[in-house]
Design goal:
Radius of gyration: 29 Å
GO biological process, one term: tRNA 5'-leader removal
Distance between the termini: 57 Å
Subcellular location: Mitochondrion
Family: Belongs to the PPR family. P subfamily.
CATH superfamily of one domain: Tetratricopeptide repeat domain
Organism: Oryza rufipogon (Brownbeard rice)
Shape: flat
CATH class of one domain: Mainly Alpha
Structural class: alpha/beta
Number of helices: 27
Strand content: 5-15%
GO molecular function, one term: ribonuclease P activity
Largest sheet: 6 strands, mixed
Number of strands: 12
CATH architecture of one domain: Alpha Horseshoe
Helix content: 40-55%
Length: 557
């Protein structure tokens, strides 16, 4: 495979050839910076056009941008962008040939080259049986090197895609390894071409090596990557790796999409799965593993041997499986984790909002609260205008549920408290009653109320009433596996019917992949946005032929 990688790399300029030919298993940290790929000086390595990089005296920014847009380089970039939008490689190549022609030479920037390479990679992936598009991409990259244009992470990721389109995962992996060595931080997308190409080729060892490199680089796989790894290891009959990856999915995904669920069902139905497991195991260690992990998994490996039976099912309201009778557990959240998470939320909020400290002091005077309401989300539920009446109905409803004598905390932006429907007499009375009760906090202009209601709900371990799925970039800043676990245990979602508001409380069990003490598995599938539809679970059980060490001792005795 590496011989094939070397042959393909020979079509690229020496610096790129050094990148791709370097044996994947050798360390390069001892190499001098000058010998690293893409480390030599570049003549023009930015995306700015000549018109932008040579401004005229007293020229305004708008005039400079207009001149850049209307320059030959700017016009070419606009045409290439249109080709990218339409996935039109032939036209893009014609524009490229005209641009590099001595009769009409146009200096090409990183943006031009990335657009061309992107189109080549798309075409090569669409028709991997034809090498033309991939080879053309490598030829363009060779020209880019000759022009001295410094590639960035996007360039090298596209180059890895071109290698993968040639069914050469070794080359794709070599590119991302050298990318990291050269000081360009690889992203998840950078690893995808190599990982998926190895998996498609059935090379489980190669795919596992890519996964290890991702871990070392701090890049976390998502469901597509974990599903590919599960698929190749399942196909190769590697039960230990499937077990490891199933636990990794438990931590990173918690629930799986239908395609991944089907893949797991196939694994449990396989001969390799029936043969996998310990004939004898220590039940004490299994119990200890369950305690140490907070419940829901033990991590001691497949228990026993025998044919699995697997089917889709659902749980009753208490978390008991309708198929096998196993009762799922609510996995504990360490209080220290909650405290650390609250501190991280506060730190991020304070860095972006000087007013947040005032809110913390206000909470010290008025807290704690059994529930927190994202009033903007509630008041605008399925409507164009804000409704204080509906917010009040939810306030009263959640107070009945929590059986608290104290009103829940209502977070609302100051603009909604002072203007619009707030000026109506009946709404003024509501606002005044909430304020007298110390239950209303109006976030100031310029503040993001999301941080306020999230922080209050976390520090008081209270219910959070909102339909906000908390998926945008603000919540991604938290960067922790704790967040989805916290949401699952604390978020109350709402739906509305003819009878009024329906409160969908957190379940008394954790909606996460669970491994039971007897070795059975329950895997939840994602439910989309339909919170009223029963969630489907994979239930995998078997009649175990082995025995725990304690049971074996009793039998011998």
């Amino acid at each position: 495979m590496r011989v094939a990688a070397a042959a393909a790399a020979a079509a690229i300029r020496p610096t790129a050839a050094l990148l791709l030919l370097f044996p994947p298993h050798r360390r390069t940290t001892s190499l001098r910076r000058s010998s690293l790929p893409f480390a030599r000086p570049r003549r023009h390595s930015t995306t700015t056009t000549t018109a932008e990089s040579h401004p005229k005296p007293n020229e305004s920014n708008a005039a400079r941008r207009r001149r850049a847009r209307d320059s030959p380089e700017g016009l070419l970039k606009a045409k290439l962008d249109m080709c990218s939008r339409d996935n039109d490689l032939p036209t893009a190549l014609a524009l490229y040939e005209a641009a590099i022609s001595p009769d009409s030479l146009i200096p090409l920037s990183l943006g031009h080259y990335n657009c061309l390479l992107y189109l080549c990679a798309n075409a090569a992936a669409a028709d991997s049986s034809s090498p033309d598009a991939a080879q053309r991409g490598f030829d363009i990259f060779s020209r880019m090197e000759a022009d001295g244009v410094q590639p960035n992470e996007a360039t090298l990721t596209i180059l890895a895609r071109l290698a993968a389109a040639r069914r050469d995962p070794a080359m794709a992996f070599s590119i991302v390894r050298r990318m990291a060595t050269a000081g360009t931080a690889p992203h998840l997308r950078s690893y995808g071409p190599a990982l998926f190409a190895y998996c498609d080729a059935g090379d489980a060892d190669g795919a596992t090596e890519v996964e290890a490199h991702m871990d070392a680089s701090g890049v976390v796989p998502e469901e597509a990557e974990l599903a590919a790894l599960l698929r190749v290891n399942s196909a190769r009959g590697r039960p230990d790796q499937v077990y490891r990856l199933l636990h990794r999915a438990r931590v990173l995904l918690r629930q799986v999409a239908d395609a991944t669920a089907q893949l797991l069902e196939s694994w449990f139905a396989s001969h390799a799965a029936s043969e996998a497991g310990l004939d004898h195991w220590d039940a004490t260690k299994v119990k200890q593993g369950l305690r140490n992990g907070g419940g829901g998994w033990h991590g001691q490996g497949w228990l026993g041997k025998g044919q699995w039976t697997v089917a889709r099912t659902d749980m009753d309201k208490d978390g008991t499986c309708h198929r096998c009778g196993e009762k799922l557990v609510c996995i504990d959240i360490d209080p220290s984790e909650t405290h650390s998470f609250a501190e991280s939320v506060a730190q991020i909020a304070i860095n972006r909002d000087a007013n947040f400290v005032k809110f913390q002091k206000w909470l010290e005077c008025h807290g704690p609260f059994d529930a927190v309401i994202d009033a903007a989300n509630v008041g605008l539920y399925n409507r164009n205008s804000f409704s204080f009446y509906e917010v009040n109905r939810v306030v009263n409803g959640i107070q009945r549920i929590t059986k608290s004598k104290k009103l829940p905390l209502i977070i609302l932006h100051k603009n909604r408290v002072n203007g619009g429907p707030a000026k109506l007499p009946q709404n003024q009375k509501l606002l005044e009653s909430w304020q007298r009760a110390g239950a209303l906090y109006a976030t100031p202009p310029g503040s993001n109320d999301d941080w306020y209601w999230l922080y209050a709900a976390v520090i008081y371990r209270s219910l959070l009433v909102t339909n906000d799925e908390m998926r945008d970039h603000l919540f991604q800043l938290l960067g922790t596996s704790f967040f989805p676990r916290w949401k699952e245990n604390h978020q109350v979602r709402l739906t509305f019917s003819g009878r009024g508001w329906n409160f969908h409380l957190p379940p008394p069990y954790s909606i996460v992949i669970q491994e039971s003490e007897d070795g059975s598995w329950h895997v939840p599938t994602t439910n989309g946005d339909d919170i009223e539809k029963p969630r489907q679970w994979i239930c995998a059980t078997r009649k175990i032929s082995g025995k725990s060490s304690q049971a074996l001792a009793r039998a011998v005795g």
